[in-house]
Each structure stands twice: as C-alpha cells, then as structure tokens.
Design goal:
By secondary structure, the protein is mainly beta. The chain is built from one helix and seven strands, in the order E-E-E-E-E-E-H-E.
C-alpha cells in the first residue's frame, strides 16, 4: 500500500477485536490502550500487526507514531 508516497507492507498479523479508536472505515493506527499497531478491516474485524515494513525497513508502533502521528490512516477498500 502507498500512503503519502511511502510503501507500507504488512507481513504478519493476528486476529483481534476491532479498536473503536479507528472509527468505522478501514484504517491503521496505534491502539491507545495497548500500544499495538492495529488495522480495522472493511468487514469491521480487527488485526494486530505483528510484522511490517516501511520502504523496506522494519516498522514498529513507535515508528508509526513518529512518522504518521496518532491519527488513523484510512485504508483503501479493494
């Protein structure tokens, strides 16, 4: 996925309840309660991101906050 000309690759996930912080549309953010990088899917399910890369480099929740801030990134529906 490209966001602001940055390639984000999600490599490994685990099912989890969707975070209400992400709203109702597909999005990615850091969960305020757990500090985990999470995704809300189009079907309203949730994923915890266990392994991700940004521009080919490892990506952590702290890296997400540093690069994109605390607001959720809206994801395209495909």
């Amino acid at each position: 996925m490209l966001f602001r000309s940055v390639e984000i690759r999600i490599l490994k996930t685990r099912l989890r309840p969707a975070s209400p912080d992400l709203g109702t549309a597909p999005a990615m953010a850091v969960d305020r309660d757990t500090g985990q990088l999470v995704v809300r899917c189009a079907d309203s399910s949730g994923l915890q991101v266990l392994d991700a890369q940004v521009d080919g480099k490892p990506f952590t929740p702290a890296g997400f906050l540093s690069r994109f801030g605390p607001d959720p990134i809206k994801l395209p529906v495909t």
